[in-house]
Write a structure and sequence with these properties.
Layout (H helix, E strand, L loop, with lengths): L1 H18 L1 H19 L6 H13 L2 H8 L12 H20 L17 E2 L6 H18 L17 H30 L2 H17 L7 H16 L6 H26 L14 H11 L9 H7 L19 H4 L11 H9 L2 H22 L6 H18 L5 H17 L5 E2 L4 H9 L1
Length: 439
C-alpha cells in the first residue's frame, strides 16, 4: 500500500510540475507527509523516515514558497520555470531510485519482541570512555584554537589547512559528542545514579567542545542526531521527523544568526527564505546558466566528495560545477553546495539520479538491520547511527561539508565503540536449572 501510494504520488508530482513547478513541489510536500505518516509504524525503515523528513525540510515546501514569491538568492536573479522543472525532475528521479530499491521487500512486521538470547551490557568502562575521549579532544582543540572559528567552509591559503581542520577541530568535537551519545544510551538502559552522572558530565563536556558559536551545524547533526535516532527510532517514531524539520527549519536560522551574524553581519531570515533552504535554487540556476557538460562517468561525484582534501590531492578538480565561470560570475557568494543527485546527473545523465538513489537505498538496508537490533553500544551500532544522521547534510550537498563531518563522525563512533562493551549471550537454561535444583 505504501509503495503504491508513493508511485501514484511521483506521477502526480511529475504532472503538477509540468503545469507549474510550484504545484510540483507542493505535491512532493504532500507525498513526503503521507510517507512519513505511514513510516511511523514500528518496524518500518529508519532510513526512509529520515529520507522523507529531509525531503520535506529542504526540497518541498521551501522551494514552492520561494518560487511563488519570486525570491532571488545571491544576485542570481529570478529563474525561469523551465529551470525549476528540470531541477524538480532530478529530485523526483532520485526519489524514484530510492523507492525502486525497495520493490519486493516485505512490509514492516510490526513490533518485534526483544531478543531473549542477547542482552545489551552497555558501556564497559564509562569513566575510561569519558576520560580518554575528553582529554584527547580538548588537547587537540587547544593545539589549533583558531580553527574552531572557521564557521563555514574552509578558508585560507595553507595547503594542509583542510586536513588540519579535520584533525584539530572537526574530529575532536565529534569524539566528545559520540562519547556523550554512548554514555547517554548506556544511562537510559542501566538507569543507575552513576550512569546518569557520567552522561551528565559528558553532556557538559560536549557543550563546551561543540558549541553553536564556533561549530558548523553539521557537527551537531552528525554528533547529536544519532542519539535521537536511537531514542525515537523504536517507540516514538513520529518524533524523529518532527525533530529534524523543527531543528533545521526553526533552530537553523537562529544558529545561523548566532554563529555568523556577529562576525559577518548576517541577519535572521526565517524558513523558507533563509539561505539554508536554497538547494533547489542552486540546482535550477546551474541548469539554467551552465552549458551542457560532457558526461563525467563518476568524476563529478568524486570531485564533490573530495573537496575537503588539499588542492593537490583533490580528485578531478576540473569536474566541479560550482567552479565553472558561468556559475562563479552569476553568484555573489562562492560557498555554494549542490545536492548529490545533481552531480550524479552530470555524471550519467537522467539515469544518474536514479542510480544514486538505488545505491544509497540498497546500502541503507544494512543500516536498518543494524539499528533495529537491540544490541550493545558498539562501534558498528554507533557507526550505523552516524551514517543515518549524516544523510541529512549529505542531501543538502557534500560541498557544504558532508565529507569531513561524516568521516570524522565515523572515526569518533568507532573509537567510542571500542571502549564500549560487546553483546554477551545469556544462559537460557540458568533459570530452569536453578528451579530444578531447588526442587
Amino acid at each position: 500500500m505504501r509503495t503504491l501510494c508513493f508511485w501514484f504520488g511521483i506521477a502526480a508530482a511529475f504532472f503538477c510540475g509540468w503545469l507549474d513547478p510550484v504545484w510540483g513541489y507542493m505535491a512532493v510536500c504532500a507525498l513526503a507527509l503521507v510517507q512519513i505518516a505511514v513510516l511511523t509504524v514500528p518496524g518500518a525503515s529508519a532510513f526512509l523516515l529520515i529520507h522523507y523528513a529531509t525531503i520535506l525540510t529542504y526540497f518541498s515546501l521551501a522551494p514552492a514558497l520561494q518560487i511563488a514569491a519570486d525570491v532571488s538568492f545571491w544576485d542570481a536573479g529570478v529563474l525561469d520555470a523551465q529551470a525549476h522543472r528540470q531541477a524538480l525532475t532530478l529530485l523526483l528521479l532520485y526519489m524514484a531510485g530510492v523507492e525502486a530499491a525497495r520493490i519486493g521487500m516485505a512490509g514492516p512486521p510490526g513490533r518485534q519482541p526483544a531478543y531473549t538470547g542477547l542482552q545489551s551490557s552497555g558501556v564497559a568502562h564509562p569513566f575510561l570512555l569519558l576520560l580518554s575521549g575528553s582529554l584527547a579532544a580538548f588537547a587537540s582543540l587547544f593545539i589549533r584554537p583558531e580553527l574552531n572559528f572557521v564557521a563555514r567552509g574552509i578558508v585560507g591559503e595553507e595547503t594542509t589547512l583542510p586536513v588540519d581542520y579535520i584533525v584539530y577541530s572537526t574530529l575532536p568535537k565529534l569524539i566528545v559528542l559520540m562519547c556523550f551519545v554512548a554514555l547517554a544510551i548506556h544511562a537510559v538502559h542501566r538507569r543507575t545514579v552513576w550512569a546518569w552522572c557520567a552522561a551528565a558530565i559528558s553532556f557538559a563536556l560536549a557543550a563546551l567542545a561543540a558549541n553553536p558559536v564556533n561549530t558548523p551545524r553539521q557537527i551537531l547533526l552528525v554528533g547529536l542526531l544519532p542519539l535521537f535516532i536511537h531514542g525515537f527510532g523504536q517507540k516514538w517514531r513520529w518524533a524523529l521527523p518532527v525533530l529534524i524539520f523543527g531543528a533545521i527549519a526553526g533552530l537553523g536560522p537562529v544558529l545561523n544568526l548566532v554563529s555568523r551574524g556577529s562576525f559577518w553581519g548576517e541577519t535572521l531570515t526565517t524558513f523558507p527564505y533563509s539561505q539554508d533552504f536554497d538547494a533547489m535554487f542552486i540546482v535550477a540556476a546551474i541548469l539554467e546558466r551552465a552549458p551542457s557538460p560532457d558526461l563525467g562517468m563518476g568524476r563529478y561525484l568524486l570531485s564533490a566528495f573530495s573537496f575537503f582534501l588539499p588542492r593537490d590531492l583533490k580528485m578531478f578538480p576540473d569536474f566541479d560545477p560550482l567552479g565553472w565561470p558561468e556559475i562563479l560570475n552569476n553568484f555573489s557568494q562562492a560557498n555554494l553546495s549542490l545536492p548529490p543527485f545533481t552531480t550524479a546527473y552530470f555524471d550519467f545523465g537522467l539515469l544518474g539520479p536514479v542510480l544514486l538513489g538505488l545505491a544509497i537505498s540498497a546500502g541503507s538496508r544494512v543500516l536498518d538491520r543494524l539499528v533495529d537490533r537491540p544490541v550493545a553500544v558498539s562501534g558498528s551500532y554507533l557507526s550505523a547511527l552516524v551514517l543515518l544522521a549524516a544523510y541529512v547534510p549529505f542531501m543538502r550537498g557534500p560541498i557544504l561539508g558532508w565529507g569531513p563531518f561524516a568521516a570524522s563522525g565515523l572515526i569518533a563512533a568507532v573509537l567510542a565503540g571500542v571502549l564500549s562493551a560487546r553483546v554477551r549471550r545469556l544462559r537460557r537454561a540458568a533459570a530452569p536449572l536453578g528451579a530444578a535444583r531447588t526442587a
